[in-house]
Amino acid sequence: MEIAVTFRHMEPTEALKKYADERVARISRHFVEESDARVVLSVNRHHHHAEVRLNSGGVAMRGHETSTDMYNSIDRAVSKIERQLTRYQGKLRRFTQPKAVATVEIHTLELEEENTLAPEPATKLVRSRSFDAHPLSIDEAMMQIDLLDNAFLVFVNAQTSQINVLYRLEDDSGFGLIDTGSVTGVPAG
Is residue 94 part of a domain? Predict the structure, then answer.
């Protein structure tokens, strides 16, 4: 397993790098050989942030923790991934992510401040990001969004071959699904 440790807003120390390597390597036995891990350690005021991102066999996992001690943050982030592994252990063995079938772009727009001369407030593009959408079943998509701890996941539904968006409900009571294949009245193309 390839492990990369990055330091942000702090002095890099060999002791922290070695500790993060050892902790992440300890859980590497659960992954296929072509795995990689990215560890980002940062300090913001007196908060020590540790973020661990793992990619293995098409499955991505993320653990992020904050505390007043960097070693504690690393331990807690790795423990979060270990809990994810035990919860999804059976599913992860069967999960192989197929090749991407669609590229999706997400644009973040922002309303400009209201101007009394303009009849309507204008919007401007703040950020644009594109990524590949992989074919997944709805169960696999729920597992992936849970592992990444994201607010939403765009994927190609393996059963319908349509682009779907899975999102977390605001009250954390479950997930919502937007199925673009069921949209009617919109011209294609």
Answer: no
The parent domain of residue 161 ranges over 102-182
Specify the pLDDT at position 120: 66
**Confidence (pLDDT) at 1:** 78
Q: Domain count of the chain? A: 2
Say how many residues make up the chain. Answer: 189
Burial class (CB in 10 A: 0-12, 13-18, 19+), 171: exposed
| 6 and 84 fall within a common domain | yes
pTM over 0.90, yes/no: no
Cα gap 117→150, rounded to integer Å: 40
61-69 long-range Cβ contacts below 8 angstroms, 24+ apart: 61/85, 61/147, 61/148, 62/147, 62/148, 62/149, 64/149
pLDDT tens digits along 27-84 = 877 776 677 899 999 999 889 999 999 887 667 888 999 999 999 999 999 999 888 8
On whether both 12 and 72 belong to a single domain, the answer is yes
Same structural domain, 59 and 116: no
Q: Are residue 72 and residue 17 in the same domain, yes or no?
A: yes
